[in-house]
TrEMBL record, chains A, B:
Boundaries of every ATP-grasp domain copy: 491-527
Organism domain of life: Bacteria
InterPro entries: AcCoA-synth-alpha, Acyl-CoA_Synth/Transferase, ATP-grasp, ATP_grasp_subdomain_1, CoA-bd, Ligase_CoA_dom, NAD(P)-bd_dom_sf, Succ_CoA_lig_flav_dom
Similarity comment: In the N-terminal section; belongs to the acetate CoA ligase alpha subunit family.
Keywords: ATP-binding, Ligase, Nucleotide-binding
Pfam family, one: Ligase_CoA_2
Gene Ontology MF term list: acetate-CoA ligase (ADP-forming) activity; ATP binding; metal ion binding
The protein's name: Acyl-CoA synthetase
Record organism: Thermodesulfobacterium commune
Amino acid sequence: MLDFIFKPESIAVVGASEEEKKIGHVILKNLLTQGYAGKLFPINPKRKEILGLKCYPSVSAVGEKIDLAVIVVPAKVVPSVIKDCGEAGVKGVVVITAGFKETGEEGAKLEREILDLIKKYGIRMIGPNCLGVINTELGMNATFAPELPPKGRVSFFSQSGALGVALIDWAIGSGFGFGKFVSFGNKADLNETDFLEYFGEDEDTDIILGYIEDVKDGKRFIEVAKRVAKKKPVILIKSGATEAGARAASSHTGALAGSDRAFTEAFRKAGVIRVEGIKELFEVAEVFKSGKFPSGEKLLIVTNAGGPGIIAADTAEKNGLKLYPMSKESIEYLAEKLPPTAALYNPVDVIGDATSERYAVVLERAMVDPNVDGVCVILTPQAVTDVENVAKIMLEKSKETEKPFVGCFIGGPKVREATSYLKTNNIACYEDPLIAINAYSKLVHYVKYKHREEDEYIKFPISEEVKKEIGLMLEALRDAGVSVIGEENAMKILSLYGIEFPKRGLARTADEAVRIAEQIGYPVVMKISSPHIIHKTDVGGVKIGLKDEKEVREAFLEMTINVKRAMPGAYIKGVNIYEMVTGGKEVILGVSYDNTFGHMIMFGLGGVYVEVLKDVSFRLTPVGKREAYEMIEEIKGKKLLEGVRGEKPCDKDAIVDKILRLSQLVEEFPIIKEIDINPYLVKEVGGVALDARIIIG
Amino acid sequence: MLDFIFKPESIAVVGASEEEKKIGHVILKNLLTQGYAGKLFPINPKRKEILGLKCYPSVSAVGEKIDLAVIVVPAKVVPSVIKDCGEAGVKGVVVITAGFKETGEEGAKLEREILDLIKKYGIRMIGPNCLGVINTELGMNATFAPELPPKGRVSFFSQSGALGVALIDWAIGSGFGFGKFVSFGNKADLNETDFLEYFGEDEDTDIILGYIEDVKDGKRFIEVAKRVAKKKPVILIKSGATEAGARAASSHTGALAGSDRAFTEAFRKAGVIRVEGIKELFEVAEVFKSGKFPSGEKLLIVTNAGGPGIIAADTAEKNGLKLYPMSKESIEYLAEKLPPTAALYNPVDVIGDATSERYAVVLERAMVDPNVDGVCVILTPQAVTDVENVAKIMLEKSKETEKPFVGCFIGGPKVREATSYLKTNNIACYEDPLIAINAYSKLVHYVKYKHREEDEYIKFPISEEVKKEIGLMLEALRDAGVSVIGEENAMKILSLYGIEFPKRGLARTADEAVRIAEQIGYPVVMKISSPHIIHKTDVGGVKIGLKDEKEVREAFLEMTINVKRAMPGAYIKGVNIYEMVTGGKEVILGVSYDNTFGHMIMFGLGGVYVEVLKDVSFRLTPVGKREAYEMIEEIKGKKLLEGVRGEKPCDKDAIVDKILRLSQLVEEFPIIKEIDINPYLVKEVGGVALDARIIIG
């Protein structure tokens, strides 16, 4: 718990100053004058008193318990200040000072130094290079932003301090209330996940917002976010390309994963709501303030203007919401109570001359109607519209139901008061039906996550012996400097984890080739086996459909001669003889690796579908059973697996099985960074992999 | 020219009233008190005087020239009022009154009646069932909205009156200036295209906005919009599913066209900027106010906060803008003038402690730098930021360059004044980098349209004789009640327009089959020919790869027996013998028909690509040469046509040729409503269609 940072009983401002323009002055003044009631200790060896407070030469000189030290001294002095804090038993520090990692190697060294120090003393640190911390509930403004935002139950963490300053100003202007606010700068110690966890447990926070550019510990982030998002909505902006994305991928799967994909998948796995824009962040936050969650996707739209109703309906449909008409009884009731020109279906149009009574009629029915999970109330201020009454009725009715209502009051001065009345009472109200419905649909999607059952994680029984065998192989290969593991070894490893390959055998002589082919059964495929040859086809090293002894014998000779001629230096182990597999549908199964979040399993249709159309889906490991099925459902070409043009459907269960086995493999052998199984032929029952490679690193 | 409506020298208010709550009172008062300086004539037989103006019993009783009559009498009385107006020589009427087509058959009858009357008298009409007309320049508020919006050079037409009322209120609240404003209700006479045309020629209008739910005359709309959009931006919301979309399609192409596709294509063809939301409509309008157009896609972002800069860069990339670094000289200049921690590339980060001087340094270089076509200036209000000065510098520099600048000032009270200063001076300024860049990218896309050369329309020489032949065929088929024209006739018609089909001949006997096969050359394909059999394969009516006389003879007998057994009643014309075509890439070429905009040509990859992935592109006819090439570029699988996995590229010119020929065919024979050519095999050079059907109606 980070209460000593967000609810400190005492704060030292190290580098407090009398000069009004200095940050050390601004912060002390902010703490002193904006409501913070705890003890305040200015630290500055050159002063006796600042802003009427007794000033101390050092933190340890204070001689009282200090929860939090806000440090604004020059970068080079910071290590000695932290030592001082450590000696004085300070629990948390906020290092506002810049000039660390963000400035280059020297700064990075200094940052490592202070990190070592806080670890040594058991101090937790925010920053360096940050804006600071705010807790509006305590009137605590430990930042250099000049004013506190209004109070509220939305907490915010930001990787950008400058954005923080702007958003506090915005919040003041628009009356948006914040609870806690933190800008964490270089996040040398405490990072996004720590604040997510703390806000998740914080009783004064209902909604968590954040702006991040990267994530420090991906696995922990997902684990924490998953847990927190079950309790309260987590809405994040993630901007910028990641380092992981910039890294060159050696596999097909890796190349397809791209830079942003892992974040998308991490947020999906964790139930985090991702938004793109700053306005959107707050628009979406509004819709969660009522604390009411629709039990399904059925939205009723009521409006006094046709046009905006249509825009809302269009948007709802695009976002996967359902616009059902109300039940027969409700429609009969409306028919009785509303004028004949009213539209009774969904959107319900109460017509431009509607007063609040008509809205009331609709809301009353909506509250009890089984075809309505939530209501969007659209209003345009016509001559007779009693705007404030509509707002009042919305609030009244809202109190009697668990169904969420959102408003969309379009206009200017005439709707201003009602809009702000609704917002103050935690009913979201927007100016644009598109924005209203987009926000509402985030609410619906979040509810799905909130009520989603934990996925089923399957553990295939792999013996310790097998694991040992694979471990030894991988180590040996790595020690030999191999990073790309070709077909044969890859097949061996994957087979041990239950991925099926065709029957096969390595022949060193033509006689042996015939013997193996006869064991397997004709026809067979023959491929040259050499660690030095990657593109076997190019050197005449592949022959397919060999039907009898004669053809196999000839192929063996021709192939070895061809290859020796084409690549004289290549070491040739022999020729692999494979069962010739036909039929089935080509799919690709793969693994990529993201530096932040770890392994992702990829699935897609093979051949041109993956190469040209890039029709693939990803999930971060460990992949659960539901996720594996989702991966199949997500690809655009999924109907091809279900059988088109008279084909039989493919065995989806077999694909799921393979996805889960790959997930287990890379979780148990993280040295494996990427895998391509391309193609995997999936059949009516089961399937078989035709080629594979593994990248280790 | 509709000056008599938008700039009338005299207005009669028919149905003027003394009762304050009546619309006839509100409108007269609006005209009298909000600045309109023309002559005003209240018409009401029961009064001598209203609001101090002399009142007349009828329009003809006035005895003076009247440009415009605003009619608010009950629906049933409207026809007699229009007659009166006609007799009095009134040029334009605005029928505010509701109770016409929107209420059912009786109202529709009444609407037809008034339409006949205005035609008879040569009157032009807005409405019925509308809000009315505004011209802020004249202080003319001929609506029942209580106040005029601020003056401006943006004009607006709306199919929704209620939305109009709301937007006027919004404009008042936010200071957004309008020039002319019209709500056209049922658009019995004047519709969107008339206002588009008028605003296009109006010297007081720089930007045209509109809200429409449908379009009355699609072809004219495109023709007018195309012309107007070359002169000034046209930004529209189109909401709602169209009647055309609801109509069941008989062809594959028709089914893929969907309801909204034709609008998307019409807007594209005409250079209309389509937006989805109400806020977006005005956000995008802002960016056009400067009247400056970037000469390309190269955007420079300058910011004093990293985070918002990244959001802007992400959004720019998504929207196809180019973020190049400035030239070497500029970067050297910046390196000299900006602090070492500043980021000199794009986004240029002048850092949180920047004052307006640093912004000035960057803008000065941006103005002359060839790698910059426009600039987005992002600002967050940090302690030292002199926000107003940044705005002033933007305006100053902006005056010296043709490159557009947009602002993104994030915050609340601290940026309010500067934002409004910029807006007042026609420099767009937003609160959110995402919104700023989205709007800016619309500007860039518009410029492309503005500078786009007219497409090349090719007219293939089709002889009058051929046209006559096709015309006779189509008429005969239509008269026979045929709507779906099957393979043989379809081939005949399409061949005449230059679509290639395999060599073929109809055989009535086995001997004839052999003779035709030998003329064509083996191998051949054989298909039963019967108007009653649609799914030939199902009844054993198709055989492929027949290699010699024996196989052809046997196939003929087997096929005819099979088919007679399966469908005893079917009339069998014989068996078609086709050249067996192999190789090439399957594509689909099609035509669909939209009730509003007419024919659309479709192109896509054939087989599962169209069936499962729906990877197709559309263009409205007449299709130009550039558009035809765009259709190929647009599909996701276009690389498959360019040759993957060692294949040779397909003949794109051949596809383009076929698209243009189909376009010409349906333009010349509009009785053709839909066509499917599926598959068309496109080869390295040329191509050939294997199957086709035509729908007429």
